[in-house]
Amino acid sequence: MNLKKKIRNIPDFPQKGIIFRDIAPLLEDKEALQDMARKLAEKFRGQKIDKVVGIDARGFILAGILADRLGAGMVMVRKKGKLPSKTESEEFDLEYGKAVLEIHKDSIQPGEKVLLVDDVLATGGTMAAAAKLVERLKGKIIGVAFLIILDYLPGRERLKDYNLFSLVSYQK
Amino acid sequence: MNLKKKIRNIPDFPQKGIIFRDIAPLLEDKEALQDMARKLAEKFRGQKIDKVVGIDARGFILAGILADRLGAGMVMVRKKGKLPSKTESEEFDLEYGKAVLEIHKDSIQPGEKVLLVDDVLATGGTMAAAAKLVERLKGKIIGVAFLIILDYLPGRERLKDYNLFSLVSYQK
Q1: Model confidence over B123-149: pLDDT tens digits?
Q2: Which of these, A74, A118, A37, A54, lies nearest to B33 by C-alpha position?
Q3: Angle formed by the axes of helices A58-70 and A30-44, to 10°?
Q4: Which of 85-114 (A) contact B at CB < 8 A?
Q5: At a CB cut-off of 8 Å and minimum separation 6, what does B34 contact?
Q6: Which pTM does this prediction carry?
Q7: Interacting residues of A81 by C-beta distance below 8 A, sequence separation 6+
Q8: Under CATH, what is the fold of the domain B47-170?
Q9: Interchain contact, B27 vs A67, CB within 8 Å
């Protein structure tokens, strides 16, 4: 199935000049959801992933599905103040200002094999911060998976130390 | 498996006097995640669910897993301003002030069979608003599932018109 056809392009969201890639129609289509889940899981099956880390909020959808399909645990990376127990935190740059991501300190054991997942790779700032959090917990990053990579933005370069995978890419 | 044992109780989060029921340790435990997913899916298998609606953000984890296991589509209900296309919106009361939830207008077709999912049922305000959104799109609500019901709060009473299901409940 051509999953790209299920992604909706929304001009000028969330701000003028940005084309938002909306995965909602893909998720709402049961065949597309199955196809996406199967293709993502196939890529990492056999790699003995211990934990699938999802980034708040849409990354949670993919991480839950992948953890379930791979027989792994699922770990949340969230914006500051959302996780209730002891956390590690990492600041990163947004276009305007900064944001902080957190992970529970006890969510990953040293040496565990970790797959990081989010819906879209744009500039890579969020995922780079999430990867740092996993490394601070001494997790071993096996792969970083996205549904979509925006190849006209510098995310791939920024995450070049990792094994990147995506199902759909946009060149412009 | 006793899933309640995998839930962490955190006193005074997010504010004094509240015991936060933290599902993170359950999600992080691969056997517990499988057990949870199997039990939730078993309950609704055979009911021909078309769409599983998840509430931002932890509800997305459960909704993704359930949609995948049931062969359904997955629909996001999000806080105001997060969904990029045309939405229906519903205001609801928080302890202090109000909040607004949104759903994409085209995410559910009239007559589709819908399962709503979130992690915890507390006062029920959020889920009641999500259910109204589904009904406004003429979806048929088959069930409302939670990982946890807090039975010392009025959520069950507030959602009494729906077929409620949960894996874990707390009486106090």
Answers
A1: 999 999 999 999 999 999 999 999 999
A2: A74
A3: 60
A4: 85, 104, 106-107
A5: A68, A71
A6: 0.98
A7: A102, B14
A8: Rossmann fold (3.40.50)
A9: yes
